[in-house]
Specification:
By secondary structure, the chain is an alpha+beta fold. 63% of the residues lie in helices and 13% in strands. It is globular and about 30 Å long. The protein starts with a helix and ends with a helix.
Length: 110
């Protein structure tokens, strides 16, 4: 349990200063996939089965905002939802949402 609390604090340090819900949730999903995830034929499973309430709490969002953002990610082909499981199906696109400043910087420098 202490280990889970430590990881929650680390996640908050990475996404805590981010105001945009899309960016916060994208970062959270990528962090979870990196820390706990595994590859499947359908995509990268984030490795943890979470309720929408739990996911929202970890991301520092309201449940409604988290659900709306997950639906947007799904509609745009970035994730697939299977009950409490989340699969990342387009990591590159999710990365672009998680790091919009870096993407804009790279695009302007090329």
């Amino acid at each position: 349990r202490a280990d889970a609390s430590f990881h929650a604090m680390q996640i908050e340090q990475v996404i805590g200063g981010v105001e945009d819900s899309t960016e916060r949730l994208a970062r959270l999903l990528l962090i979870m996939a990196k820390e706990y995830g595994f590859d499947t034929p359908k995509g990268a499973d984030i490795g943890v089965a979470l309720s929408r309430d739990e996911l929202a709490e970890l991301a520092g969002l309201s449940t409604e905002t988290a659900i709306r953002t997950l639906s947007k990610f799904k509609d745009q082909g970035m994730i697939a939802l299977d009950g409490h499981r989340i699969l990342i199906t387009n990591k590159q696109k999710l990365n672009e949402l998680a790091e919009p400043f870096l993407v804009a910087l790279k695009e302007n420098l090329l």
